[in-house]
Amino acid sequence: MTTPVLIYLYHTGKEDTHMEKRNETVVKLAQTALMAALCFVSFTFLQIKIPLPGGDATSLHLGNTFCVLGALILGGWYGGLAGAVGKLCIGLITGLVAHRFAKINESTDKKYIFRWSTIASVAGLGFNVIADPLAGYFYKQYILGQPQQMAEVLAKWSTATTFVNAVVSVLLAGVLYNALRPVLLKTGMIHVTRTKTSHEMAN
User: Fold this and answer.
1) Do 197 and 112 form a contact (C-beta atoms < 8 A)?
2) Residue 110 to residue 122: CA distance in whole angstroms
3) Is the Cα torsion angle 154, 155, 160, 161 positive or negative in sign?
4) 37: domain range?
5) pLDDT at 190 > cutoff 80
6) Domains in the chain, number
7) Within 10 Å of residue 106's Cβ, how many Cβ atoms?
8) Which helix (H) or strand (E) holds 60?
């Protein structure tokens, strides 16, 4: 009599675990869609266009803020998806530093979380400051066939605006994440896994 009961409980437990994982995935996908919408809206409507020579243009915008925020809240893959393919590397690098290296979801130390969420944002956006103008330079010179001097001028303008966007995004993403984190914890949208980080073990 005991054996069938144990088997039933075992399979019921497995089904419950599977259901919880599926529900968590659905919630993360919904959150990813929300962050993607915020990225799109902020990039499309909350921007200042700067015309450049040759009919090109660059812009100051807040799109990267929500890409970084998504990576801090959801992790690298989901944060990268929220920012779409063009911003995938920002989300992956930010999520890697914040969650894989610093493990901010395993800490309740506010100073530690603030410090590493900022470092993770700087890492992701710092990569973008270098990679975005560089990719644009090669694309404009070798794909579009623009003169080298023109491509260099456009790359310099792109570097300047990308740097300004990065600084603003680091500040906003850090403030927003640390302000929203307590609310997200209370609503169960993010979870703290209580295993000590290296920082906490050192203390």
Assistant:
1) yes
2) 18
3) positive
4) 2-197
5) no
6) 1
7) 15
8) strand 57-61
Partners of 60 in the β-ladder: 48
Give the span between the Cα atoms of 25 and 105, in whole angstroms.
Answer: 17
Question: Would 202 be classed as within a structural domain?
Answer: no
Name the burial class of residue 193, with classes exposed (0-12), middle (13-18) and buried (19+) by CB atoms within 10 angstroms of its CB: exposed
CATH of the domain at 53: 1.10.1760.20
Of 56, 31, 22, 64, give the one whose Cα is nearest residue 146.
56
Query: Each residue of 130-146: pLDDT tens digit?
Result: 988 898 888 888 887 88
Q: How far apart are CA 121 and CA 30, in angstroms?
A: 23
The reported pTM is: 0.76
- Which tens digits make up the pLDDT trace of 62-79? 888 888 888 888 876 776
| Dihedral, CA of residue 151, residue 154, residue 156 and residue 157, to nearest 10 | 180
Interval 83-106: pLDDT, tens: 654 567 888 888 889 988 999 988
pLDDT tens string 11-23: 444 445 556 667 7
Q: Which amino acid is at 169?
A: S
In 3-state terms the chain splits into helix, strand, coil percentages (rounded to 5) of: 80, 5, 15
CA dihedral (161, 92, 95, 199) positive or negative: negative
| More confident: 69 or 7 | 69
